Amino acid sequence: MGMEFARKLTIPKEVKEMYPLTEEMKQTFNRRQEEIRKIFSGEDNRMVLIIGPCSADREDSVLDYIGRLVKVQEQVKDKILIIPRIYTNKPRTTGDGYKGMLHQPNPEEKPDMYKGIIAIRELHMRALKETGFSCADEMLYPANHRYLDDLLAYVAIGARSVEDQQHRLTASGLDIPVGMKNPTSGDLSVMMNAITAAQHSHTFLYRGWEVTSTGNPLAHAILRGFMNKHGRNIPNYHYEDLMQLLELYNQKEYANPAVIIDTNHANSAKKPLEQERIAKEVMYSCHYNADIRKLVKGFMIESYIEDGAQKIGEGIYGKSITDPCLGWEKSEKLIYEIADRV
Question: Which terminal CB of the chain, N or C, has fewer other CB atoms within 10 Å?
Fold first, then answer.
């Protein structure tokens, strides 16, 4: 075989026993999950804001960033519920480059997935314990979800994973909101099929077990824009796009129709400063049409301490080493502006 089996990694149960949650952390997590559930079910008309770095590259600056959100959350608590992004897996279009903290706890050193498993659990645990935030992560590898399943408030299925059967079936067994991104082709039927699959019960193979899922009524859409055959970024956050999504939801029986608008990626052509304008336009659409306001549950924003991005090794504290992000000052201002429009 063309693979070297380096070592067998510790299983999620063992990692959780080594790094258990305290009773207080469990209570904080459960309280937050009930709040988040009510927003996606429509019982609470606040918006969700999934905000943070493109990738969680180092513990100190990520926790610094999340700590800054605590004060802002208190100021906007009647309008917005913040779910910080701690994205520890980074999908790569070609497979090359930094793949996230799970692979490389230190981006400047070689991959070490055992250290990575410990590092990502410790980071999510510190965020919950020190700031009271349960956070969001991307489910890049469905089999790895159980290392963090007692810590995650929200899971996103990426544009390249949304058509994958294992991602869809694993999402059907989760009891937290799972956002299905539209694929890079822009075909919304792929995203809607993923939502359908995730909302239904299935029997399937997971981590060597035959499992039966209950279906996830909180599975929903994420609009992130797409790229056409000519390589041009096409946004899908405009009023007409939201009306099209509303029509797709109305064609079938879905539990809790919902959408999160990803203000970066193809929607902004990865120009992070455009995120403010995009969020404001969506809020205008929400005010113009009550059905759109009911559908739009919030935003996904890529934000860090410093504007832009850097190459690995430059060493600028709080600056993304993957996609460019919106810096802290602009992000804080944007959060308040969104709250004023809710």
Answer: N
Q: Is the dihedral of CA 264, 269, 274, 278 positive or negative?
A: negative
Nearest-angstrom CA–CA distance, 38 and 55: 28
pTM above the 0.85 mark?
Answer: yes
Pairwise CA distance, residues 272 & 290, whole Å:
28
Fold of 36-89+131-319+335-341: TIM Barrel (3.20.20)
pLDDT 10s digits, 267-317: 999 999 999 999 999 999 999 999 999 999 999 999 999 999 999 999 999
pLDDT at residue 336 greater than cutoff 80: yes
Amino acid at 296: V
Domain ranges of the chain: 36-89+131-319+335-341
The DSSP call for residue 183 is P
275-288 vs 239-250: helix crossing angle, rounded to 10: 60
Q: Is 183 left (phi over 0), alpha (psi -120 to 50) or beta?
A: beta
How many C-beta atoms lie closer than 10 Å to residue 37's C-beta?
17
Sign of CA dihedral 245, 251, 252, 253: positive
Closest Cα to residue 49, out of 297, 342, 320? 297
